[in-house]
Specification:
By secondary structure, the protein is of the alpha/beta class. The protein contains 17 helices and 17 strands. Helix 1 packs antiparallel against helix 11, helix 4 crosses helix 7 and helix 13 packs parallel to helix 16.
Length: 505
């Protein structure tokens, strides 16, 4: 995308102004849309003096972030949970698993010669079953390529040479991380994708959720989707983040608290001083796994961290929105993060929460670090930190799968803090890990039998992925313990599920 800092700069100024207004207004001040000669603005205003009912006119309904985004996308002044509305879609993403089905439905319903509603708002990213000899998997990518050439799709991240991913300059890797890195995630917008973890993009203060192939085929032709407005559950995370915790621990703790159905068709909004302190990749981890709680979408209010990340990544103006002070939430949860401990999710459910130290007798066969949830640059830096602190070698095979080409390059080029200039790759090699693989979804979804690190036998694996259902990473009798990169690395060093404090404290 064309590089530009204008959108981020304007949004940053608007966010700062919003904070000033919030500080000046008497509590509890209700935020209102304010007028400003700028295409990027935060939705906020100073408190207004009450008026007599006869002179009030139309009354603005206080809304949550998710309600505001959907209201704007449907050109409605206000929305309430449970309403069904047609929304204008800003970005539609699909990949090699669901893309062919989506394309088939589009052609069936709109005609063989039909054109997509906007060639610049469709993003197609092959990433799931890429580095395999499976002919059907390879054919899926061919179908995407043919369609993108036919439709002149602007953002198709193609791969042709499977023997050397670096020979494919357009190839990115895992769709959810690539969407962020390529500037397709913007505050206040609606992003839909044919993948349940599309909710990852909510970290940018946008409405992002997964949809099925039929809905996606309709969006391809019209740019619209029919959505039911979800109620919002607010999660306030406050307190200083302990040096042995990561966002993966936070979301596993939350899912363990509310269960895999605790947020069914709800928006999960994350706020609080801890969330504000997280970088964008850690915020993505939080939002990525809301679907594991049944959530419709996850969302984090955009702030300076968001705007800085977006600098140079997008030339599209965007308008962040924020929940009103008097917005109605379905329920509120509050957590003192400073008191939490490293956790894992035991087989076979993401809500089967246990403290890592309670599982110290669980012998494991392997460790897997990768996926949209746990294969970002910050995840590998975290794992390298544990290996560096221990100075030891791993006791079980440890597989590393960077999410994207950019992450792969970071693994080989970024110095790990406190290492004297060593990169993650150097530390991984010294620790006896497997050489970092080509960027893709890898074994997170199992895939064809020749997929790198797939569990083709019943094994016990500690993984930074997002699901541990039977057969998720391959063999139906495999056991997967979901964990943070800290816990995964610590477990690799001992051969048992291990609390990372054994190496970091």
């Amino acid at each position: 995308m064309a590089a530009s800092v204008s959108a981020a700069a304007k949004a940053s100024a608007a966010f700062a102004h919003k904070k000033e207004l919030a500080a000046a207004a008497p509590a509890p001040a209700q935020h209102r849309a304010r007028s400003k000669p700028c295409r990027v603005r935060a939705v906020a205003s100073p408190a207004r003096a009450p008026r007599a009912p006869a002179s009030t006119g139309s009354v603005k309904t206080a809304m949550t972030m998710t309600e505001k985004i959907l209201a704007r996308a449907s050109e409605r002044a206000g929305l309430e949970p449970g309403e069904n509305v047609w929304v204008d879609v800003d970005v539609l993403m699909t990949h090699d698993v669901c893309g062919p089905g989506t394309i088939g439905i589009f052609k069936k319903e709109f005609g063989e010669d039909a054109k997509v509603w906007d060639r610049e708002k469709v993003v197609i990213i092959p990433d799931h079953y890429i580095f395999t000899s499976d002919e059907r998997a390879n054919r899926n990518v061919d179908i995407l390529r043919d369609f993108c050439m036919e439709q002149n799709i602007k953002y198709f991240y193609d791969i042709k040479d499977l023997s050397n991913f670096k020979a494919n300059p357009d190839y990115k890797g895992v769709c959810h991380v690539a969407l962020a890195q390529e500037g397709h995630c913007r505050p206040g917008e609606v992003l839909l994708g044919t993948d349940s973890h599309t909710c990852n993009a909510g970290a940018f203060g946008q409405f992002a959720t997964g949809i099925g192939n039929t809905d996606a085929g309709f969006v391809l032709g019209t740019g619209k989707a029919l959505l039911k407005v979800p109620p919002t559950i607010r999660f306030a995370l406050d307190g200083e983040m302990p040096p042995y915790l990561l966002a993966k621990d936070l979301i596993l703790h939350i899912i363990g608290e509310i269960s895999v159905s605790g947020a069914t068709y709800k928006s999960m909004e994350f706020v609080g001083s801890t969330v504000e302190s997280l970088n964008m990749e850690e915020r993505m981890t939080l939002c990525n796994m809301v679907i594991e709680a049944g959530g419709k979408n996850g969302v984090v209010p955009a702030d300076e961290t968001t705007f800085k990340y977006l600098e140079g990544k997008t030339s599209v103006d965007y308008e962040p929105v924020y929940s009103d002070a008097q917005a109605r939430f379905f329920s509120d949860y509050r957590f003192d993060v400073s008191k939490l401990e490293p956790v894992v999710a035991k087989p076979h459910s993401p809500d089967n929460r246990a403290l890592a130290r309670e599982c110290k007798d669980v012998k494991i066969d392997r460790v897997y670090i990768g996926s949209c949830t746990g294969g970002k640059t910050e995840d590998f830096l975290a794992a390298a930190k544990v290996f560096l602190a221990s100075g030891k070698k791993v006791k079980v095979p440890t597989f590393l799968v960077p999410a994207t080409q950019k992450v792969w390059m970071d693994v080989y080029s970024l110095p790990v803090p406190g290492s004297g200039g060593k990169t993650c790759s150097q530390i991984f090699e010294e620790a006896g890990c497997d050489t970092p693989a080509s960027p893709s979804c890898g074994a997170c979804l199992g895939g064809p039998r020749d997929t790198y690190a797939r569990m083709n036998e019943p094994m016990v694996c500690v993984s930074t992925t997002n699901r541990n259902f039977p057969g998720r990473m391959g063999h139906k009798e495999g056991q997967v313990y979901l964990a943070s990169p800290y816990t995964a690395a610590a477990s690799a060093l001992t051969g048992y599920v291990t609390d990372p404090r054994d190496f970091l404290m």
